[in-house]
Amino acid sequence: MYSMQAPARFGVRTVDLYRESLAQIAWVDEHAPGVDSVWLTEHHGFADGYMASPMVIAGAVAARTCRLRIAQGIVLLPLYGHPLRLAEDSAAIDLLSGGRFELGVGMGYRQDEFDAFGMELRTRKGRFDEGLDIIERAFTGERFSYEGRYYDAMGAILTPQPVQQPIPIWLGAATPVARRRIVDRNHNLLISLLTDIHHTKAQFDEFRAAGGTGRTALIRECWIGDVSEVLPHLHYTYREVYAPPNAMFAVRDPDGRRRQITDAADPFYDSPEFWTDRFIIGDAATVAAEIARYRDELGIDELVLRLAHPGVSHERQMQALRDLSEDVLPRLA
């Protein structure tokens, strides 16, 4: 998974990061057959340049790859403008890639992002539901009309048509209501990297018990090597980016209660509970064993690994990708 963050403290320039990230993805496409997909993510207004235009990047990835599926994890649907435009851009990327695009959408949650786009945060659910309605209808290939509170579409039709009929849709879900939505709409379930394995399993089990038949995927932070190499970059992510004032990070205590992290110095960051079952870090044998554990315990279709940690050098990330391809994945065959 790529977020395209370029923290100045690590001497990273965004223009270099974009070029190097595309080179990494192209290398994986050609040399790492055990990797099936590349995932992109989205946020707005971050000082480190967190990827704000994942659909544009997806087009660039499509032009540089031949095999990898290209997935969004996720596009912030209410902030995209008119949802028909997102359907059109999805079709274009699917055509560019020869039928390899997968659209992941979410409703967003950060007040400052909605403020920046001149929208009220409280409208996010309505915008999301209506937007998804329009995208689903557009993906049928039929002409349609739609009247909603936030969006209208009169006599709309998606042209040109994508290769896939329809393009697969992934939805993020952190609550039972959200997972019920995925079941009802017959889409695929993506769970974020911030949930420990115990509660993640409960969410996947609940999804399947409710009749969910879509594919399932889980995001995890990963590193192949000594934790000391990546620790400064993980501390940057979790003590700063995912901590106040961004307020992106909440955890579940061992008793299952949800707790918002409100202080970058919160001792939870140094506790065994934080590091257990949220990170896959170690030598090749350790990482392979952990991936196998996730596969066997959760029964998921896809494990999305984030190796592109903010500030890690291109050379070191390339080595991690080579280790993944040559030393980790063969152990799972």
Describe it for me?
The chain has 333 residues and is an alpha/beta fold. Helix 1 runs parallel beside helix 11, helix 3 packs across helix 5 and helix 10 crosses helix 11. The protein starts with 13 loop residues before the first helix and ends in a 5-residue tail after the last helix.
Secondary structure elements and their pairing?
Elements: H1 14-31, E1 37-40, H2 54-64, E2 69-72, E3 75-76, H3 83-96, E4 101-106, H4 111-116, H5 124-139, E5 144-147, E6 152-156, E7 169-172, H6 176-185, E8 188-191, H7 197-209, E9 216-224, H8 227-241, E10 250-252, E11 258-260, H9 272-275, E12 279-282, H10 284-298, E13 302-306, H11 314-328
Helix pairs in contact: 1-11, 2-3, 3-5, 10-11
Compute the number of helices.
11
What structural category characterises the helix and strand content? alpha/beta
Question: Alpha-carbon distance between the termini?
Answer: 22 Å
Shape summary: globular
What share of the residues lie within helices? 40-55%
Strand residue percentage: 15-25%
Radius of gyration: 19 Å
- Spans of at least 5 consecutive residues whose pLDDT stays below 50 are none
Multimeric state = single chain
Instruction: Please give the number of β-strands.
Output: 13
